[in-house]
Amino acid sequence: MTEHFDVAIVGAGISGIGIAYYLKQRCPDKSFVVLEGLERFGGTWTTHRYPGIRSDSDLNTYGYSFKPWVGSFTATAAEILNYLGEVINENGLASHIRYQHHLEAVKWSSKEHSWTIEGVRQDTGEAIRLTCNFLSMCQGYYRHAQGYTPQWEGMDDFAGEIVHPQTWPQDLDYEDKEVLVIGSGSTMSTLVPAIAYDAKHVTVLQRSPTFFFPIGDEDNLAEQLRALDIDEAWIHEIVRRKRIYNGQLFARRAAAEPEVVREELIAAVRQQLPEGYDVETHFMPQYRPWQQRIARVPNGDFFTSIRDGRTTMVTDEIERFTEQGVLVKSGRELPADIAVTATGFDLCVFGDIAFTVDDRPLDFAATITYRGTMFTGVPNMAWVFGYFRASWTLRVDLVGDFICRLLRHMDQRGCNSVVPTPRLDQREMPLSPWVAPEDFSPNYIRRALHLLPKTGDVPEWQHTQDYWQDKDVFPAIDLDDPVFVYR
Ligand SMILES: Cc1cc2nc3c(=O)[nH]c(=O)nc-3n(C[C@H](O)[C@H](O)[C@H](O)COP(=O)(O)OP(=O)(O)OC[C@H]3O[C@@H](n4cnc5c(N)ncnc54)[C@H](O)[C@@H]3O)c2cc1C
Prior knowledge:
By secondary structure, the protein is of the alpha/beta class. It is built from 13 helices and 23 strands. Helix content is 28%, strand content 21%. Strand 4 and strand 5 (114-121) form a beta hairpin. The longest helix has 25 residues, at 232-256. Flavin-adenine dinucleotide binds at residues 10-16, 35-38, 43-44, 48, 55-57, 62, 102-103, 138-140, 144, 187, 351-353, 384, 386, 391-392.
């Protein structure tokens, strides 16, 4: 007998746990299972264990709408895992989650109106086989087993250790060592202050600068409301709305007056650095603000480590590794005992799971997305892909609500499957990549754009990356619209 569920959720990260909460609350009659390859929940916050690992989003929007966040503005991985653990316990979700269930294939059958899920148990090696009607893909967007490390000449000659933050050895001894961190983003700026005071010295080697935004780690409004003895649920909602509102203002300004916002961001960084510091070389990006993620720096600690002389910035390109370190194009050799490649993620589409629809292999790059969550030719499936310019989890609340509405609507209509399909007048619409490079262009997306689904020329067939519109649009989606083809 193959075990069957109404819904299978793939992944027990912040997305999968959130969707499980919505199913339990809004569709109590539906059976569901959460299938997770790792040995515990948390996804990103379990995989990444480098020193200092923390969010750079505020937790009022990175936390769920339904569970108040009572800690500081940002949070460590341990605090986020604790929060997720509470969500699991308070809502009786633990019995729904199956760990060490690594999925390899999912197969849709139009005849059965169901998905067959196959994989391998990581603890016993046993084969997994179960079926479900609806698939909620919460597998994230990158390969958890390994990060992205470019190949440079001479890496084999290097006498030191090369480490990627995603697979940080827990026993790595960096005390009194020369550490070279290669990279320029949020991982770099999080890791550096956490190791800079134990290492002999940290050198950051970046090819080009990133926008940073130093922030305080307390929310004044939350503290004021707390002093008035306001209920934590209210504080969460009020502060969350303030953050959403401010986020919208900032994103709109970054698009409307990029030069003004650029100057503001650079001025804020300049303020953190000693007088005469070469901000032009190290902290003036070539791209527009928000064309790549802006790395927030809680308490400006990354800049403190520069001010304290513990961290040195080098903006240059790698020529090759040498025995003692790295030779850069300008001819300098940067000494290193440890080289950390904070060079990003290895994006993978749908958890490297092989999809078939009626025995035909599915190429997601040949599909068009319905609002960034469903896909043409793929019945009964929804994906959570969060926001670049707002907290990822804002999307979880929207998609969770949408899936529950859709499942209830299907029951009311008495049908078994739904697939989004362009209306007749949309069949010839011009198609574009998942995200336009001039809109948002981090390297991990550029490297994998050819693998991602396509978008159309109207918001309905795009992931607009605009939470501030989506928050009104998603709850109002007309499920009887002809784009939803029910069977
Ligand atoms: C270091 C770091 C910091 C970040 N900070 C922020 C931040 O501050 N704010 C923000 O908005 N975003 C941030 N992000 C983006 C972040 O990825 C999302 O916020 C969020 O954690 C994604 O959650 P998720 O549940 O969708 O995916 P993930 O956290 O990636 O979890 C996916 C889960 O699915 C499982 N899975 C995948 N494939 C399979 C398979 N084939 N079989 C079984 N299980 C599978 C994985 O094991 C994993 O547990 C950060 C990302 C990183 C890497």
